[in-house]
Design brief:
Blueprint (H helix, E strand, L loop, with lengths): L1 H8 L2 H4 L4 H42 L6 H5 L3 H93 L5 H92 L3 H12 L21 H18 L30 H38 L6 H33 L12 E4 L2 E4 L7 H9 L37 H12 L3 E5 L18 E6 L6 E8 L2 E8 L3 E5 L2
Helix pairs in contact: 3-5, 3-6, 5-6, 8-12, 9-10
């Protein structure tokens, strides 16, 4: 309690009664300081806005590109990363909230407080200056009254002294003495009047000075003290408020961080590995052992192969490119492997084809259900109109109903077609091998061993007697420069590319794989994309397929692994085609 009384009695008006100039300077520095704090809040808010903007730009730059295929088979790591980006975007939003609240709740308050403090300080200082000027004026009046009194007193003393000298001098007449006495009385009277005025002004000055230093000026100083304390309290409140702005968004920020941790925990490497399998599994079986070819024994297929080779050679002379113009197929782009452009997905591997067919069947089933529901609704509406013609004309629904029935029939027909394709793909009992496994090296050139009776898989196709669209997924129609198989490689037996007779298939094979000439590598090339093969400077290669306008040439080279086929840049080689 005593301490509180001491605090209340300790005021600027009492303790700093003579420090007007220092108090004025201190209050000015205090206002400048809180304005500087406002500048700090303004710059911090700008940094928060810039930080949020950069976070949003970061999220935009690293947002994965959307594709229908990726949405169907998204890796858990990719999903987690997308969730992380969402949380970071939310964090950016919270930084924007912080910046907005700092500006509206803190900076605006600081600016308003500083403005009010300046106005109040100006009024208080003007009042203090007025009081001080009034006191100085009164003190000046007192000084003048004192000087007048001093002058009158000296003149009175001089008159008294003159009178006493005249009175003691017997040579002066009485009239002269009386004159000095009258002058003395006048000077004494003037001195008394000046003394009275001086005493009066002194009383007034002392009273005003007491009023000035004990009441008026302390009130001004106390107002300045309250003003400075108000500034200090405002500083305290604004610092706390700036912290509260952070506290208000901290739960949301914590939730965002929890979301990032949850996204990380959702990553499952095993599931991602299974997605890779589902995405790229072809369904082909690994190739079997390559049989030994005894050249000392006659080959029963030699005659057929020789005839086919001669036919191909003749065609080479006709076209100069190893294929006829009628059978020359346009190859797909350099990145077009397994694109699945055919309606029956026959250009996909078996497993991928079954997945696409299953998805197509489900899509058509959903469309059929929707169309059936729409048709049923139209039927009900027609029945209502027929029962009550006031509600509507049944003929207006008749046309819509017919269109719906036609669409429903087309969808059912298409659904039945894809269900049959899916059933055929699921019921294949033979083992499918990749196209590469059906090729062997014979006499330095590629040839097909699919002669009559030489392949059990072929026999199983012929026994089936059905067209198997899935066999078309053997890369025969979707091969691209990445696959290194070209556009007219051997199809699997019975793939629906023609009749089950093997002779047309062998003829097309020889047309595609017969070298068109040779080429020499002008520069070394490192294979960096799928379907391309490396080559060293000066290396000799066989030309299998000339450039079709896409800047790539298919060649064959012999390496430690055997014969390799693939694509190299046309500008890197110098070709010499056979005549």
């Amino acid at each position: 309690m005593a301490a509180q009384e001491i605090d209340n009695s300790t005021t600027w008006g009492k303790e700093l009664w003579d420090q007007f100039d220092n108090i004025a300077t201190h209050t000015q520095k205090g206002i400048d300081f809180i304005e500087r704090f406002g500048g700090f809040i303004r710059d911090r808010s700008a940094i928060e806005v810039e930080y949020a903007l950069k976070l949003r730009r970061l999220v935009k730059n690293y947002q994965p590109k959307k594709s229908k295929e990726d949405e169907e088979n998204e890796f858990s790591s990719l999903i987690a990363f997308k969730n992380v980006l969402k949380e970071v975007a939310d964090l950016a939003g919270q930084r924007e909230v912080v910046a907005e609240n700092l500006q509206n709740q803190v900076l605006q308050g600081i600016l308003l407080l500083a403005k009010n403090l300046r106005e109040e300080r100006k009024k208080a200082l003007n009042q203090g200056a007025s009081l001080t000027q009034s006191l100085h004026t009164q003190i000046g009046t007192l000084d003048r009254a004192k000087r007048s009194y001093e002058k009158a007193f000296r003149e009175a003393e001089k008159a008294i002294e003159s009178y006493h000298k005249a009175d003691a001098d017997f040579h002066l007449s009485r009239a002269d003495v009386e004159k000095q006495r009258v002058n003395m009385n006048i000077r004494n009277s003037q001195s008394e009047d000046a003394k009275s005025e001086y005493a009066n002004q002194l009383q007034i000055t002392n009273k005003q000075q007491q009023q000035h230093y004990q009441i008026a000026l302390p009130e001004v100083f106390n107002r300045l003290q309250e003003l400075d304390e108000k500034r200090t309290r405002g500083m305290k409140e604004f610092i706390k408020r700036s912290a509260d702005v952070e506290y208000e968004v901290s739960p949301i920020i914590a939730h965002c961080l929890e979301g990032i941790v949850k996204a990380a925990d959702s990553i499952n490497e095993k599931d991602d590995s299974m997605i890779v399998i589902e995405k790229y599994q072809s369904g082909f079986q690994p190739p079997g052992d390559i049989p030994f070819e005894d050249l000392s024994k006659p080959d029963p297929d030699a005659a057929n192969n020789s005839q086919t080779h001669n036919s191909s050679t003749g065609l080479n002379h006709m076209t100069g490119k190893g294929t006829t113009k009628d059978k020359l197929k346009k190859r797909v782009g350099i990145f077009g492997i397994f694109t699945g452009n055919k309606e029956d997905f026959s250009d996909l591997p078996p497993t991928q084809r079954r997945k696409k067919l299953t998805a197509k069947v489900q899509e058509l089933q959903q469309k059929v259900a929707q169309e059936q529901a729409a048709s049923d609704g139209l039927m009900k509406m027609k029945g209502v109109y027929e029962a009550n013609s006031m509600l509507g004309d049944p003929r207006t629904v008749e046309e819509q109903l017919n269109e719906s029935v036609n669409r429903l029939d087309r969808l059912r027909h298409e659904l039945l077609r894809y269900q049959k394709l899916l059933e055929q793909a699921n019921n294949q009992s033979f083992i499918q091998h990749s196209p590469q496994s059906n090729r062997v090296i014979q006499n330095g050139q590629r040839s097909s061993r699919h002669s009559n009776g030489s392949s059990n898989h072929e026999n199983s196709h012929e026994d089936n007697g059905e067209d198997h669209p899935d066999d078309a997924g053997s890369l025969s129609s979707s091969a691209s420069p990445e696959s290194g198989l070209g556009t007219s490689h051997t199809s699997l037996p019975g793939s629906g590319q023609g009749s089950t007779n093997e002779q047309p298939m062998n003829e097309e094979f020889y047309e595609a794989d017969t070298p068109l000439g040779t080429c020499r590598a002008l520069y070394p090339f490192d294979a960096t994309s799928e379907g391309s093969i490396p080559m060293s400077e000066g290396e000799e290669l066989q030309v299998i397929e000339v450039d079709q306008g896409d800047g790539w040439t298919r060649v064959r080279r012999f390496s430690s692994k055997g014969w390799e086929e693939g694509f190299v840049p046309t500008s890197y080689i110098e070709c010499t085609l056979y005549a």
